[in-house]
Write a structure and sequence with these properties.
Helices cover 46% and strands 18% of the residues. By secondary structure, the protein is of the alpha/beta class. Strands 1, 2, 3, 4, 5, 6, 7, 8 and 9 form a nine-stranded mixed β-sheet that branches. 37% of the residues are buried.
């Protein structure tokens, strides 16, 4: 193996995070990262993010900075994948922090087992304090395929609580679609094609809690609804092609629950008619299962308004 090829590429899209980007970079750079590369992609920031990042470039030879007009986080991450030279890829959000004390142990696990994806735990971070939410913790697991792992475990479907094998991503054409939320869709496809996945009970990431994240912006609520409909339609075709009923019922439940959360926020209950129509089509494809996920989907396909009211009541 060429010793000049990095073991790991950190891919960090940046858009107007001048307040946090230094802390993010410092959390990586304070450790021995000579065998890694840090790819920072400024997505047309209008604040001082670019100049802050640029001040690190001369000090750290393994930090590569790119700048382009605003194209969105999905296309920016895709550019990072194409620019990456590392054997493995770790997507980082520019307002978050890393715990890289165990990074060489993690890379050794990835390498020795030739994994496609390695999952790990994270903690929430705000104003110097950290805490965990046990429902999002992943337990240590043996190596299995992505369909089994996602079917059997509770996994937070973000891109940053995983390390990916770059050759696996490229071989399966795993690039981000221009959706909101892009991370849910990306995880669903990645786990569908992954043959070797392992969960690791280590805290490696700190997810900063901020009030103004993209996902919390009311201007994006309708885009969320459109993206969820896109996913339901797209994956109904996948469910017909790839016969994994347990996997797909769990995936569709994820999407439908999130969709209803957005309908509550938009107050556009007309979307429930579309949801009902798509779910009826999906349930003609997926065979009957005596499972919670299947029964929930069946209930929503018959009583979408009732389910919406239950979710709305529970969200108060």
């Amino acid at each position: 193996m060429d010793t000049n090829i990095p073991l790991l590429s950190f891919i960090i899209p940046v858009y107007n995070t001048e307040k946090y980007i230094s802390e993010c970079l410092e959390s990586i750079l304070k450790y021995d990262c000579e065998k890694f590369e840090i790819i920072v992609l400024d997505d047309g920031s209008s604040d001082s993010s670019y100049s802050i990042i640029n001040s690190y470039v001369d000090k750290f030879h393994n930090l590569r900075l790119f700048h382009h007009e605003n194209i969105g986080v999905s296309f920016t991450r895709n550019k990072g994948i194409k620019e990456a030279r590392g054997k493995y890829i770790w997507f980082i959000d520019s307002d978050d922090l890393l715990n890289t004390t165990n990074i060489y142990k993690v890379i050794e696990i990835m390498s020795s087992s030739d994994l496609d994806i390695l999952l790990f735990n994270f903690q929430f971070y705000q104003d110097g304090s950290t805490w965990r939410w046990p429902r999002f913790d992943v337990l240590e697991s043996d190596i299995n395929d992505g369909i089994t792992i996602l079917s059997d475990k509770k996994i937070y479907l973000a891109p940053w609580n995983k390390i990916f094998n770059r050759s696996f991503l490229v071989k399966n054409d795993l690039y981000f679609f221009n959706l909101i939320p892009e991370d849910l869709e990306y995880n669903i496809r990645s786990f569908l094609f992954a043959k070797k996945v392992k969960c690791l009970n280590l805290d490696l990431y700190y997810w900063r809690v901020t009030p103004n994240s993209l996902s919390k912006s009311p201007s994006n609520y309708s885009k969320f609804v459109e993206s969820y409909f896109y996913m339901l339609n797209k994956y109904s075709g996948y469910a017909e092609r790839y016969q994994y009923p347990k996997y797909w019922t769990k995936i569709f439940k994820y999407i439908v629950f999130d969709l209803n959360n957005m309908v509550i926020l938009t107050k556009d209950i007309s979307a429930l008619n579309t949801e009902k129509s798509i779910l009826k089509k999906i349930l003609r494809i997926i065979p009957f299962q005596l499972s919670y996920n299947y029964m929930i989907l069946k209930f929503i396909s018959i009583f979408p308004i009732t389910f919406y009211r239950i979710k709305k009541y529970m969200s108060k």
